[in-house]
Automatic annotation (TrEMBL):
Gene3D superfamilies per the UniProt record, alphabetical: 3.30.530.20
Name the UniProt record assigns to this protein: Polyketide cyclase
One Pfam match: Polyketide_cyc2
InterPro entries per the UniProt record, alphabetical: Polyketide_cyclase/dehydratase, START-like_dom_sf
Domain of life where this protein originates: Bacteria
Amino acid sequence: MVASTETALIARSPADVFAYTSDLDNEPSWDVEVVSIAAGADEAGLEVGRRYEIRFVPFLAEAEGTLTVLEVEPGTRMVLQTDFAGLTSRITYSYAAHGAGTRFTRHVEVHPVGMLRVVAPFVTRRVRRANRRDVANLKRLLEAD
């Protein structure tokens, strides 16, 4: 397993940060590896067990896979799972009030299977770098409004 945890203090309320990150149509604006999530992903809100088609560029080429909502605790926690090409990733978003803002934490676990375990060191560096960049992007976007 490959894991990365990044935290940022965001000068917005936990409700605002949750609202933005739980609207999956916003995901490509701050997670640069996500190209798109099925149109209208936020129509009915997030429902546990709901599955979406996702297109992203996790390594060198665009890939398609699924994103599944595993847990939703509005304003507190959200857990998503992506599956594609032999990789399963679990992404946990945590939100906590911190002064007038939010302590936002994004924990990513990637579980390579089969021959993909051979590239785990490469995946580790890539996941850590991407997670750090994406959390910084989210902070920048939300504080710019």
